[in-house]
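Bumping my old thread because nobody answered last time. Still need a sequence for this structure:
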């Protein structure tokens, strides 16, 4: 990548950080909703609890960066609180496979989102890029875990995952700006 020159468009790291923090917050709420419904000792609940702990760590890191960089959170955080929990609970009520399909769909979109951010950041913010790259690897692990746990067996899998992926894209777009 060439060095930045005056007049070049610079990546909006503040918007990236805002949307990433919102996404990690939403993920913690989805997992909280799923764990509220699933049997505590079920295989799915154990997998989700492990993934939720990683999402909490991601959220903590982005919260720290937001405070250090003085980036405001999205004004939609109360919406993501309720919507995330509701999505998690609803998919878990459908079945363990639907809960896993939710994870697969969300993490597929997050992989695309983080990949685009890394491309846009280039070498402009190595600390932030390193966090995104590390978290992206864990999100891909979550996606693969969900697939291995039967996400594709969920009733209505194609419609369910397409709907969740579309909702993620809308949430990403809104959280960057609002």
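Sorry it took so long. Here it is:
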């Amino acid at each position: 990548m060439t060095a930045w020159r005056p007049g070049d468009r610079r990546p909006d790291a503040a918007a990236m950080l805002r949307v990433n923090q919102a996404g990690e917050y939403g993920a913690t709420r989805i997992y909280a909703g799923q764990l509220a419904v699933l049997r505590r000792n079920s295989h799915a609940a154990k997998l989700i609890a492990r993934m939720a702990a990683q999402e909490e760590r991601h959220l903590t890191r982005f919260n720290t960066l937001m405070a250090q960089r003085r980036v405001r959170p999205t004004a939609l955080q109360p919406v993501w609180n309720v919507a995330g929990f509701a999505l998690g609970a609803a998919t878990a009520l459908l079945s363990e496979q639907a809960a896993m399909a939710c994870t697969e769909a969300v993490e597929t979109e997050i992989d695309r989102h983080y990949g685009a951010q890394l491309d846009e950041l280039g070498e402009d913010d190595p600390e932030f890029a390193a966090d995104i790259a590390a978290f992206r690897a864990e999100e891909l692990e979550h996606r693969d875990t969900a697939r291995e746990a039967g996400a594709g067996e969920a009733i209505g899998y194609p419609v369910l995952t397409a709907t969740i992926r579309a909702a993620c894209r809308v949430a990403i777009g809104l959280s960057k700006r609002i």
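The chain has a mean pLDDT of 90. Let me know if any region looks off to you.
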